[in-house]
Design a protein that fits this description.
The radius of gyration is 22 Å and the shape is elongated. With 329 residues, the chain is of the alpha/beta class. It has 15 helices and twelve strands.
Length: 329
């Protein structure tokens, strides 16, 4: 079975070198930054397409791959794949839900701690020879720590649940908002309490985003949301940039409504030097942390990615239905 792979071959060599399914398939690697014409010329007759979460898979590509049976995202987000075009053709679109939950949750909690303890500010102060001054400032204005913080998770999938688990040892009080409230047993298992969206914003010292980019979540955090945020709260986004209205976020930082923000996702990506949030970080270098969308880049995540990819490829090769279908087939 031929598979067109729009991802670095080096990762497959590192994390799936001995995979028996890989050996049985014909993998054709192309640069993910290439053109549709280049991809089609290389493997337009492929039956399976592997892509990264940041690769656009439009109807114009799908319609010119006549043998396509499955499009599989290496990660979780599928907002750049034309799900409806694939559904109309009977092509499965699958993701690797949960593959990177552990490292993304780890980054989320790390960023919370960085913001609370003013890590960027402290680093700058020490570099400039002002350690004593920084220590005296902290002595006079001791920061909140995670043991006393109220953390609000927006979304409650695998990553949010992993974040709740990692916050438990700190003693944080954890709340969550999701479109569908979980059963009481699940809430007890993760030590979380449900709150409506705006009540969560008004209650929590931290807002941490863990939901996909969809039509319903687009700019969920808008000016109205930030008007409800507890003054002096922090925001962490390790989900998708489109969930936030960047202008509203910038206004909340500039007004002091938000004490700080740490971001690992943007809209659009990749960001340029003139992106509003990059400009904001230059304006407030001690209060805004920018990461290069690295949360899911970890060895444990990649081991899960290629295990899940090739398990689903085996199902297609055997004429079976794959798992984690996200386009309604």
């Amino acid at each position: 079975m031929k598979v067109l792979v729009l991802a670095p071959e080096e990762r497959y060599d590192t994390f799936a070198a001995g995979n028996e399914v890989r050996k049985a398939a014909e993998l054709v690697f192309c640069a993910r930054g290439g053109t549709e014409a280049e991809w089609l010329a290389a493997a337009g007759d492929a039956e399976v397409l592997f892509v990264t979460p940041v690769t656009w898979v439009r109807e114009s590509l799908i319609s010119r791959m006549p043998h396509l049976k499955m499009i599989h995202c290496e990660g979780v987000g599928v907002d750049r794949i034309d799900l409806e075009a694939a559904r109309k053709r009977g092509i499965y679109v699958c993701n690797n839900a949960g593959c990177n939950a552990a490292p993304v949750a780890e980054l989320s909690v790390t960023l919370m701690s960085m913001l609370l303890h003013r890590t960027l500010w402290g680093h700058r102060m020490v570099l400039s020879g002002r350690q004593l001054e920084a220590q005296q400032e902290l002595d006079c204005h001791a920061p909140l720590d995670l043991a006393l913080a109220k953390v609000g998770l927006i979304g409650f999938g695998a990553i949010a649940q992993a974040t709740a688990e990692r916050l438990r040892p700190y003693g944080s009080r954890v709340y969550y908002y999701a479109r569908h409230r979980r059963e009481a047993e699940t809430e007890r298992a993760y030590g979380v309490e449900y709150l409506p969206l705006y009540e969560l914003a008004e209650t929590c010292d931290f807002i941490s985003l863990h939901l996909p980019a969809t039509a319903e979540s687009h700019h969920l955090l808008d000016q109205t949301f930030f008007d409800h945020v507890k003054p002096g709260a922090y925001l962490v986004n390790t989900a998708r940039g489109a969930v936030i209205d960047d202008e509203a976020l910038a206004a909340a930082i500039r007004s002091g409504r938000l004490a700080g923000a740490a971001l690992d996702a943007y809209e659009p990506e990749p960001v340029e030097a003139d992106h509003p949030l990059v400009v904001l970080a230059r304006e407030f270098p001690d209060r805004v942390v920018l990461c290069p969308h690295q949360g899911g880049i970890a060895q444990s995540a990649y081991r899960n990615v290629y295990r899940m990819l090739f398990e689903n490829l085996k199902r297609i090769m055997d004429g079976q239905r794959p798992e984690r279908i996200v386009n309604g087939l």
